[in-house]
Design goal:
Layout lengths: L7 H6 L2 E2 L7 E2 L4 E2 L4 E3 L3 E2 L4 E2 L4 E2 L4 E2 L4 E2 L4 E2 L4 E2 L3 E4 L5 E4 L2 H24 L10
Parallel strand pairs: 1-4, 2-5, 3-6, 4-7, 5-8, 6-9, 7-10, 8-11, 9-12
Antiparallel strand pairs: 12-13
């Protein structure tokens, strides 16, 4: 689930929970924010990104190159198709990547992948030193 090249804080902070003996799994090219929560038999496809505060529940399948928006909740058994943006609670609205939006995403996809890489490498917990 976690890429070998991920920063230690990313590898150790993302809340992953097994449910009834099944655990989340995903492609090593996917990016999952450290505050996203994955529960149970969840699959995250290649190049997908799951942003801050999102919750993915048991049985959900996230397609390739799909973006799960910050704060979204993907319910149990939901299949989010490849190349869409899913948002909301529950994540029902899906914006397909077709026509003009697809062209925009194709040109900006590397920007979002780089942003995900920057977040994976550059985000770390803030330790409370007791000093204000």
């Amino acid at each position: 689930m976690r890429p070998a090249s991920c920063a230690p804080h990313y590898c150790g902070v993302t809340p992953l929970y097994s449910f009834e003996g099944k655990s989340p799994r995903g492609d090593p090219t996917a990016w999952i924010a450290p505050t996203a929560t994955l529960i149970g038999d969840v699959t995250v496809g290649p190049g997908a990104s799951v942003w801050y505060g999102a919750t993915i529940q048991d049985g959900a399948v996230i397609g390739a190159r799909t973006l799960i928006a910050a704060g979204a909740m993907v319910g149990p058994g939901t299949e989010v198709p490849p190349e869409v943006v899913a948002m909301g609670v529950p994540a029902k609205r899906q914006v397909p990547l077709a026509g003009g939006p697809k062209v925009w995403v194709d040109h900006n996809a590397e920007i979002y992948r780089e942003l995900a890489r920057r977040h994976a490498a550059g985000t770390s917990p803030v330790e409370d030193s007791g000093k204000q």
